[in-house]
Write a structure and sequence with these properties.
249 residues; Glutaredoxin; alpha/beta
């Protein structure tokens, strides 16, 4: 914007793991307030502030995945809690040894604009380099009811079908819970729903049973917790069915 070369490209203010990070920089005598937000819950808060005209930021970067792209479903699936931190550290270390840090210094990009794209931000560049958002959710809303009980003492089971959990096997967990309920006549005791995201991607597949978070869930683990809760309500409910539990020895 100023035509001056930016010697330092590392902005330490916006690093870290917090859901909302802020920075104030001065560009050509003008102070700009920046924000980086990740996780859908945090993004919703900031979006509502913008809608209400109460946002103080000039630029907001939003990342849907907790921790940003390094914690997203496009990365290799890992159950280690340290994976995201190690990926972040690796990216910063790799960046330090690169000769080019800014796209405007890349000769291949500048040549592409000169020979083909034309003016930066021009009509041709805008048409070819921009895209439009479209929903890729597997469920239409944030919650999809699959088994609904009218009983007052029903147990609520929510299985995350967000991309990260889906890739780690949450669909198999959901199918296992539904199959177990049908085989053991538990339809009148359960409220089973598929949910979009609990923002606990690093510990997925995620299942919530009566508000209890089950990390790295499997069908067997979810069924064990569920049966334990049902048995505590009525010890006779599951008598004789233990040998039929799906996914248990």
């Amino acid at each position: 914007m100023t035509g001056e070369k930016l010697e330092k490209v590392e902005f330490q203010q916006v690093r870290g793991d917090s859901g909302l990070r802020e920075a104030t920089i001065t560009v050509n005598g003008t102070q700009l307030k920046l924000a980086i937000v990740h996780g859908l819950r945090n993004a919703r808060v900031v979006a509502e502030q913008v809608r209400a005209g109460k946002s103080q930021y000039d630029l907001i970067e939003v990342m849907a995945c907790p921790g940003g792209c390094v914690g997203g479903a496009g990365q290799p699936v890992s159950t280690s809690p340290n994976t995201r931190a190690l990926r972040t550290k690796g990216l910063y270390q790799a960046d330090k040894i690169l000769q080019l840090h800014k796209s405007q210094d890349n000769v291949f990009i500048t040549e592409c604009y000169e020979r083909f794209l034309g003016e930066i931000g021009g009509e041709k560049a805008h048409h070819l380099l921009h895209t439009n958002y479209q929903s890729r959710r597997r469920i239409a809303d944030e919650i999809l009811p699959l088994m609904q009980s009218q009983s007052e003492d029903k147990h609520k089971v929510n299985v995350c079908l967000g991309t990260n959990c889906f890739l780690k096997g949450s669909q198999e967990v959901l199918n296992g819970v539904l199959r177990h309920a049908e085989q053991n006549g538990l339809e009148n005791r359960l409220d089973v729903r598929a949910s979009f995201c609990f923002e606990k991607c690093e510990t997925g597949p995620t299942v919530m049973i009566d508000g209890q978070h089950i990390a790295h869930a499997t069908a067997a683990k979810a069924i064990e917790v569920l049966d334990s809760r049902i048995e505590s309500d009525n010890p006779e409910q599951l008598a004789g069915t233990n040998s039929d539990r799906i996914g248990t020895p």
